[in-house]
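Why does residue order matter? Because the sequence determines the fold. Keep that principle in mind as you read this record.
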Amino acid sequence: MIINSQQLVFIFTLFFLTASAQSVSVKTSETIESRNGHNYYLHQVDKGQTVYSIAKAYHVTVDEIYFENPSAKNGLNIGQQLLIPTVNKETQLNTEVKTTNYEFFYHIASANETLKHISTIYVIPVEYIRKANPTLHDPLREGEYVKVPVEESFNALDGKTNAQNNVVTTPPYTIPIPVKRPEKKQESAVASNQPVRQKQTETPTAKNTTQKPAPPAKNTGSEFVTFDPGIPVIDDYRHVTIMGETTQSIADKYDIPIDVLKAANPGLGNTVIKGDRLRVPDKTKLTTPEPRLEQPQIETPNLTAVQEEEKKFPPTDTTKTQEPDIVKHVVKKQETLYGIGREYGVTVNEILAVNKGLTPNILIGQTINIPKKKINRQFIEHRVTSKTKLKNIARLYQVDKNELEVANPALDRWVYSGQIVRIPVGESALLFTYQPIEPRPIPDKPDEIDIPFSPEKSNVCLKNQPHFNRVFKLALMLPLYLEDMDSLNIDRFLQEQQTSFKPFRFIGFYEGALIALDSLKKQGLQVELFVYDVDQSLSKATKVLKHPELREMDLIIGPLFPECFHQVALFAGNFNIPIVNPLTFREETAQNYKTAIKVKPGIASQNKQLASYLHTAYPDAKVFFITQNAYEEAVQVQNMINALRESNPDTYRVSNTDLYNLAVRIAMNKDHFSPGQTPPVFKFEGQNIYPDLLEQMLSDSTTLQNSLTRVEYQSDNLAPLLNNASVLRPNVVVLYGNKKSFVLDVLNQLNEIRDTLNIKLFGVPTWERLSDLNNTQLSNLNLTYFSSGYTDYELPEIQHFIWEFRQRYSTEPDTYAYLGFDLTYYFMNNLFLFDDQFYDCLENNPMHMLQSTYHFERQYQNSFENTFWNLLQYKNLNQYKVQDSIVTPSNNLEE
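Structure:
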């Protein structure tokens, strides 16, 4: 179905107005008859039945009934017999596409059309169309599906044994033969002018190691305090709790304030469990003042668990401080104090402050004072103090869970202590307090990143004069599911929350695209927009391809689903039309089609970025590479390992003093060692270290091998990591895998050893697709991972886009809205600037967009793939984006 952009709203409205009409129920027939090699149900028409209602009952389309029963086009008669295919056309098409050994797309024939005429439309020799359709003969019936083979399929149709059915004739990745490095002798005591580094090795001692009865806990005001990662703790030491201990008794034992102990151990309250391992603050380094206690909250009986949590750590307010005016609110049925606060855009503490003696246990009809305040954001902030589900917070604030997810796209189903949850304010807050900040207009052209042009193309692409006199044609192929509107119960639809209504799922993409086009129109772009309803249905996509104007498009964005993208991409390649795939991660997308442009970056692009980042951020780290086994994605794994090895130095130096002190610490754990003795030989990162030699040259350093260690988890577990990990430098662990069970297992084990080893975890290749991972574990390991997109709500351009989106559509933009804007703006801007030179200049025009950076590289003929990944990192339970300048590979990794 083709939809003009101005008609889209009208069509939705029309469906709403007509959707309440209900058809008569249809009883399906069980009588089957075979004709011309095909099986059909024999259906007898009853009173009130329509072609549409019959088609719905048998799960076929109206066109299929008309094709088998041409007389039905003139109307149905009671008692008339219809032939209904037992296998619908959609199933036939999918089976045919999967089982045919060459590539093709479908053409739906018009009445009396010939194969010769079809060959002239697609510029394909008629002999190959005949070979692809041996059962079809001229003239064709209206509605017949004709296979149109692409040029790369001619060999297969000719029966040649060396026919290649794929566009790419060479594998996209190769495993280079590893070059054996020359063996290097282990150097000891290399001359160095570096000063000797001293390191304290005393074992911490408690004030009194004799266990005493636990004293009563002191009044600390609030049981929990905010975690402070900056508190200095005793290195390589943990206090293991025993039966009868409390947090207060442990604090007394080490002569430190209880709240400092709590601040050094996230989630620690007044009680402990036997076996807990606590970080102990170093009293000699406590130069900062003690953490300020939270102010005692008003005592309120019978609060829920989530409300108790909120009492301990009230939501952070984002409003401006001012003397409050008062609004009287009468409590209604099922309202809560938190929900009322959200409605007016104020926090519970602010309500309690102007209502003496008020508790969260409010009554229906009770009058409450609400402070009237100006706010500059459409949300208040709730700080999580202990692990809970997002839906519990939604219930507390009486806000729909899906609305909360939209306002917090980076959060998962579970939230953890320290995280911030944005709570959208209600209509009352907007009614009298919200004053939108006048934003700057959306930039007409996002800033470009400085990447040099290719010498052979720079002269052409630098002539980027806009083509003002050219009218460009853009096709958006989006899954609008308009047929789902036909059986809609309009009364029920308007009364209930619609969180998964398919026709609305991708409407944000279309809305974002319109904003992009309007921005470009202000610069002089002339564009004609066509919107097509294309989802997973091959039959729907094939009908779209029948439209003659589609052959004249300058750009096609979509379809979003792979089933139909395959067909449309073959069609687009036949007419040399660039076609953009917005969502797929499949590597073959940019390799199997002539003109496909893959927006999601390829896994191979991670190799250089990861190697460059590790070389910059962790130049002295020990690197481990963990895979589930030796055979899954072996080529991609080997290519990434090769890239890391190329950037990883063969050797590194470590201070002899540090090595000797480590030898002493290891030896002191053995009963037979006495102070003053030379420590015995020990293993360090899998290599033998000789303390007697170190003792003679403490001011020098030792050169050690620095090879990357491969770990195959299925056979080795973490043994290679434990045997070779370093206690003197960071251990970078690259965990390659997308299976959640495997990732969770490794995460659990790494968290158990993180107190002993300094571990920096990197998740590859597509961890952005993993959900419901433990954020506390990820933060503990300082996880860094690649993401194809990231929305930084603090950036001015993001805030301007949100403001513009709200003004137009009275709702918040979702992920698809940002994607629709980015894709439409970037590619139409390139067409506007380069026109006929679009393919030649695309890879020379990288650009920062709202969610990512687009930097395309040619893959095959006129197909391209984005090569830029965002690098995201967890710190203190929050997620941050690593600066692009650090992530972008440098031309020379050598120091």
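The longest strand covers residues 233-240.
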